Every structure is written in structure tokens, then in C-alpha cells.
């Protein structure tokens, strides 16, 4: 296992980058703890795979360093970094059996054959392929081959880090939860440093100790699922995390009040004067309909999704969502909305601003 340090790290695919927008990965300075499980989360093109490939040594950064336990490995080849990487699409040896595919990393390092057999059996059980150990990989389905790739990544106990680049893309939906659970158990049992790239928030939030949210080549927040939900540090985090995501509403902020179209909203905290683009962010879970309190809202439709209802509404020309209870009656007189002041976030130029308690 290893602590991973990103020191002034940045990367551009252009030969001579001259401005910030030329960089696919903007400058990063972060320490990732030894033995922790991280998920790199963001939309396509945000820099997740670029960062993962720099960590693994498949890509050399345009600037900065990467260190494992304080040792500079920026120029070290992948083989010397002692990592295991599982890619989006399965990489297996078709002419080998499942058993030999799983055993390959161990045999390649000269491990005792009795240990190899024991470890292969353990991993095969973990990925649900004990019955297929003697089968050739050729002819297996794509999801079965990806399970072999996952198993081969997990078979070694001595790696500095396990890196996963959207490994469940080709896995059947009913298998995804099971394999995520197995990865989580592997982390619990062996304490590997794990980095898991995904654009799926469910995968990220259920797998990781901490989620690294990326946007436009930047890390905009690193936090626990609770921190990302309660206090999104960037409007993208609020939008991307949650279903539906956070309501982001243009506003004017003065002290403890936000003003939308002249109507005031209590913020619960005081704020200094703000410049630039000012918005408030409220998650649908912290908004409620009322027949008397709050500000006027126009309900467009109500979607019953089983566990709760999602109210789609217009709020002074802004589309907002409100979560209502499964058994909550939504009458024609419920034409107002109330926001919980303790859960209203304030943003200036997309970044969260800390207020001061009264």
C-alpha cells in the first residue's frame, strides 16, 4: 500500500500549452491516504482517466510530480510502481484458462505454486467463477471476461495501489452491486489503496471512503458522501450528486437574506457582500410545499417514484425540484415553497461561500 502525493501535477495533450484551457488536467496538489478507497467521479472528459493513467505510469505528466510514500515515481515505468490496473474493457488471455489468467500475475513474480492455487481459488470464489476455472477465456461473455480482469487485479496482496478505470461498464446490471460489494470487502480485508474511476454516482458513493469530484480538469471537492451531499463546495458537485441534483437559483445576497425576484429567503447565517455570479443552492430534500408559508411556486407536474414524490416546479422563472413524502398529499392549495435555512448554501462564481453564524 502507498500514500499517493500529487505535487503541482498538470497535463496537456498539446505539445506547447500556453494557457490554462490548454490543459486537460489543471494543477493538482493533493495527498491521498495510504490504505484509503477513493472514487474519481465526474462526467466524460473531465480528466478522470488522464489522472489515473498518470498515477499508473501509462502517461507522463506535462508538469509536476507523483510520489508513492514520499518517493518520486514520476519517471518510473509502470512495472516499477507495483500497481494493478483494471481497464474499462476486459483484457484477458483468450488461449489461457480462467485459472491461468488469474494465476498469471503471481506466477510472473515467481510465487510458490501452492500459494498460487490457494489465492486463485479465493479470488475465483470472490468473483463467482469457481465453476469456470478450467474453461478457456475464449468464448466467455464480455462481463465474464471483465470479472477475470477484476480478479487478476485483486489476486496480488502486495501492490502499492489498485486502480480501476470504469471496470463495471460491461458488467450486467444485476452483477454490479455484487462486484462492488466484493471490492469493498477486499479493501476492508487487505487495506489496499484503491482508486476507482466512474461517472456513476451510485458506484462512487457506495464504494469509496472519499469521493474525488472532478470538473473541467479540476478536483472541485474531495469528501465523504455526506459532505458532498450536505456541503457541495462547487455548484457542479451539487448538480452532479443527488437524484435529482441541487436546485441552483440566481439570487442577491445581503447579510442573512437572499433575494429572488425581490422576495427574501432566510439563510440562517450572515454573508459579506459578494461579487460576480451569486446563487443559492438548496437540495430538493430540504424544500417543502406549503399552503401558507414561504414563497410562491408553480407546480408543473408530480412524479411518484415509489419511495417519494418529485415535484417539478417553476420558481420565479427557475426550474426547481422538491421532494415530497410518499404518503404526502399535494393539494391544489399548496402553491408555496419553504427552504430549510440550515441547508441553504451560497455560491459566488460557482464556489461555496462560508457564512458567519449570528
UniProtKB/TrEMBL annotation:
GO terms for cellular component: ATP-binding cassette (ABC) transporter complex, substrate-binding subunit-containing. One of its GO terms (molecular function) is ABC-type ferric iron transporter activity. InterPro entries: AAA+_ATPase, ABC_transporter-like_ATP-bd, ABC_transpr_FbpC, ABC_transpr_MalK/UgpC-like, Mo/tungstate-bd_C_term_dom, NA-bd_OB-fold, OB_MalK-like, P-loop_NTPase. Residues 4-241 form the ABC transporter domain. Pfam families: ABC_tran (PF00005), OB_MalK (PF17912). PROSITE patterns: ABC_TRANSPORTER_2 (PS50893). Gene3D superfamilies: 2.40.50.100, Nucleic acid-binding proteins, P-loop containing nucleotide triphosphate hydrolases. Belongs to the ABC transporter superfamily. This is ABC transporter ATP-binding protein.
Amino acid at each position: 500500500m502507498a500514500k499517493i502525493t500529487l505535487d503541482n501535477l498538470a497535463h496537456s495533450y498539446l505539445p506547447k500549452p500556453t494557457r490554462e484551457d490548454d490543459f486537460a488536467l489543471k494543477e493538482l496538489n493533493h495527498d491521498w491516504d495510504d490504505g484509503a478507497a477513493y472514487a474519481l467521479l465526474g462526467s466524460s472528459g473531465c480528466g478522470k482517466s488522464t489522472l489515473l493513467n498518470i498515477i499508473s505510469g501509462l502517461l507522463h505528466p506535462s508538469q509536476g510530480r507523483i510520489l508513492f510514500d514520499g518517493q518520486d515515481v514520476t519517471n518510473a515505468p509502470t512495472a516499477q510502481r507495483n500497481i494493478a490496473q483494471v481497464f474499462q474493457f476486459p483484457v484477458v488471455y483468450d488461449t489461457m484458462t480462467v485459472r491461468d489468467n488469474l494465476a498469471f500475475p503471481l506466477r510472473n513474480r515467481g510465487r510458490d505454486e501452492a500459494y498460487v492455487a490457494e489465492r486463485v481459488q479465493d479470488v475465483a470464489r470472490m468473483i463467482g467463477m469457481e465453476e469456470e476455472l478450467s474453461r478457456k477465456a475464449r468464448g466467455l461473455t464480455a462481463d465474464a471476461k471483465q470479472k477475470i480482469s477484476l480478479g487478476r487485479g485483486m489476486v496480488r496482496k502486495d501492490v502499492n495501489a489498485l486502480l480501476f478505470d470504469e471496470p463495471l461498464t460491461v458488467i450486467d446490471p444485476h452483477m454490479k452491486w455484487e462486484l462492488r460489494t466484493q471490492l469493498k470487502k477486499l479493501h476492508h480485508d487487505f487495506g489496499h489503496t484503491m482508486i476507482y474511476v466512474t461517472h456513476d454516482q451510485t458506484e462512487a458513493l457506495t464504494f469509496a471512503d472519499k469521493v474525488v469530484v472532478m470538473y473541467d480538469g479540476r478536483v472541485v471537492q474531495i469528501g465523504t458522501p455526506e459532505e458532498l451531499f450536505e456541503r457541495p463546495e462547487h455548484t457542479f458537485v451539487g448538480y452532479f450528486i443527488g437524484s435529482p441534483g441541487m436546485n441552483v437559483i440566481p439570487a442577491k445576497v445581503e447579510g442573512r437574506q437572499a433575494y429572488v425576484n425581490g422576495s427574501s429567503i432566510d439563510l440562517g447565517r450572515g454573508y459579506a457582500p459578494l461579487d460576480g455570479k451569486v446563487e443559492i443552492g438548496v437540495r430538493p430534500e430540504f424544500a417543502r410545499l406549503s399552503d401558507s408559508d414561504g414563497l410562491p411556486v408553480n407546480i408543473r407536474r408530480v412524479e411518484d417514484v415509489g419511495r417519494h414524490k418529485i415535484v417539478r416546479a417553476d420558481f420565479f422563472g427557475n426550474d426547481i425540484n422538491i421532494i415530497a413524502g410518499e404518503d404526502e398529499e399535494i393539494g391544489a392549495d399548496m402553491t408555496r415553497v419553504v427552504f430549510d435555512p440550515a441547508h441553504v448554501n451560497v455560491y459566488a462564481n460557482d464556489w461555496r461561500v462560508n457564512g458567519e453564524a449570528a
